[in-house]
Amino acid sequence: MAETGPNVSSHLKPLESNPTKAMTEAKQRMALFPQPSRVIFPHENLWVPIVIVNENIHILPGVPKLFEALLTGYGRYLIKGDKFVRKFVKTFYPETFIAPILTEAQEKVKDFGVKIGSYPETTEDGKYAVVVSFLGKGNAKVSEVVEKISKEVSKQVDGVIID
């Protein structure tokens, strides 16, 4: 259930000195956010917040100047942490052929938080290809695991590691 975000109403400036009940209700509906969510006002001169849902979905305004101003101020809220490590392998084998190989590889690396995904594509010359992504977040051990599993899979699918 959505609720009015904290402090949003205090940031909204009335368009008229005597808004009607319908205008007030409409304004309050515009301030509804999914719950649970976190509301951040990174720019002290703007009434528009950044709404963060599930700690990974950031809702920002579509107006370029507001978007840019909010992103500029948002940097101080970011938590520095582990970096992402990603490798890609490109193969011309069909996804159905490589699926069991990727399932086995995913099982090997699941305890390290490494995610494996496959993405079919058509090359510029019209050939069918699949790009396999290996993504991990963390320390040197995770980087080592991503490096190792991408090389293993590359050999199994006749692939090429791309950066």
TrEMBL record:
What does the entry give for GO biological process?
flavin-containing compound metabolic process
* Pfam families assigned: FLAD1_M (PF24102)
Q: Which residues form the FAD synthase middle domain?
A: 84-156
Q: Which InterPro entries match?
A: FLAD1_M, MoaB/Mog-like_dom_sf
Question: What molecular function terms (GO) are annotated for this protein?
Answer: FAD diphosphatase activity
Identify the PANTHER family for this entry. MOLYBDOPTERIN BINDING DOMAIN PROTEIN (AFU_ORTHOLOGUE AFUA_5G11210) (PTHR47675:SF1)
Which protein is depicted? FAD synthase middle domain-containing protein
Q: Which organism is it from?
A: Gigaspora rosea
